[in-house]
Amino acid sequence: MLQDVFDDLKEGYESTLKGLARELAKIRTGRANVAMLDGVTVDYYGSATPLNQVANLKVADPRLITVQPWEASMIGPIEKAIIQSDLGLNPSNDGTQIRVPIPALSGERRQELVKIARRNGEDHKIALRNQRRDANDMIKELQSGGDITEDDMHKGFEKINQITETYTTKIDEILEKKEGEILEV
I want to staple 64 with a disulfide (CB 3.0 to 4.6 A). Which of 60, 102, 124, 128 is the partner? Predict the structure, then answer.
């Protein structure tokens, strides 16, 4: 019974880590990364469609993303969507593909991005704490229902705290790595 609680907790923590990784991938570093364009949607025959569903995205070199639309008629709408995306990117097209140069970041902008990354990390740590609280509540219910002893309940709390510490450390490591990428010139 306790093992089920621990397994559910770890599963929730893993999904939280994946969510953090997705959020941090959207934060711009000085390098080109197709994940930067994940939030861009294009008007594709009247419906908002993610960019990666209407074109091939490639990193041509560390400071350039190329967008190859599947339909030539989509070049204009794709270019317009990238400009309006609020990413600060200025795409250009040559008639067959769109080139999106990634400008170098200023020191001030790098510090802002580090703050955004830390805020994302803190939000995900809060999610961990909420999941920990829920797991502790489940253990209390097991004990009050007579399914486990009070000693097992306290051991369960200790195990949950150990698991939480492990995942909190993983979040800190992920953030540290991302901050290094952002601050790298």
Answer: 60
For residue 97, give both structure tokens.
């593909």
Q: How far is CA 145 from CA 58, 76, 132, 150, 152, in A?
A: 56, 64, 20, 11, 13
| Boundary residue ending a domain (79, 101, 123) | 101
Q: Residue 151: which H helix or E strand, with range?
A: helix 150-183
The rounded Cα 130 to chain-centroid distance in angstroms is 19
Residue whose tokens read 């902008």: 109
Beta bridge partners of 85: none
Residue 170 and residue 128 share a domain: yes
For residues 62 and 103, give the distance between their C-alpha atoms in angstroms, rounded to a whole number. Answer: 11
76 shares its domain with 10: no
Q: By residue range, what is the domain housing residue 136?
A: 2-26+106-183
* pLDDT for residue 156: 93
